């Protein structure tokens, strides 16, 4: 027995603008030219369960039949097309058209948002960089709170806050060193973000040699470090 499985993910907003309608020709560039002559069965299944609870749609052409599948306590309704019954001399296409137009909206970034990443290389030194974006038209004061695990010892003297190439001095800062296998590192600073700016908050750390029982089950996957907390009065 030979089985072929293809999993594809499409962004309907990019593919078709504001319309969620789709078809085989729209997704793959052409229709179906018959079935495989060596296959004993050739069937297309389309999940139409959401047609009963969400925005209604219709299939063109209509399916040969519909079946209901019960698995794991869930009920799924499927539209079935038998490809062997199609005309082998013509291209076959299945289209899904919604009864009412659906408009996709684009998410607008908030006034303040952040992302972070790790810098450095090797297994000795590294750094954590947090980019804080201020999209507001005036400066905003934030409180940046960080709890870093004990196995990632950070150095407070390496703390740098840079915005648009200019070094910023924090208004308030508090640092509690961590203790190996007892408590994490605590870092809290208050800083004023310039208007319409991107501010980099970076600190360097070392890697600690752990005991073999202290590694996570999948050591090659690495460690997870909790995110920082940013508080602002908007």
From TrEMBL:
**Cross-referenced Pfam families:** Gpi16 (PF04113)
Q: Which GO terms describe its biological process?
A: attachment of GPI anchor to protein
Name of the protein in question: Uncharacterized protein
Question: Source species, please?
Answer: Homalodisca liturata
> What taxonomic classification does the UniProt entry list for its organism?
Eukaryota, Metazoa, Ecdysozoa, Arthropoda, Hexapoda
Cellular-component GO terms for this entry: GPI-anchor transamidase complex
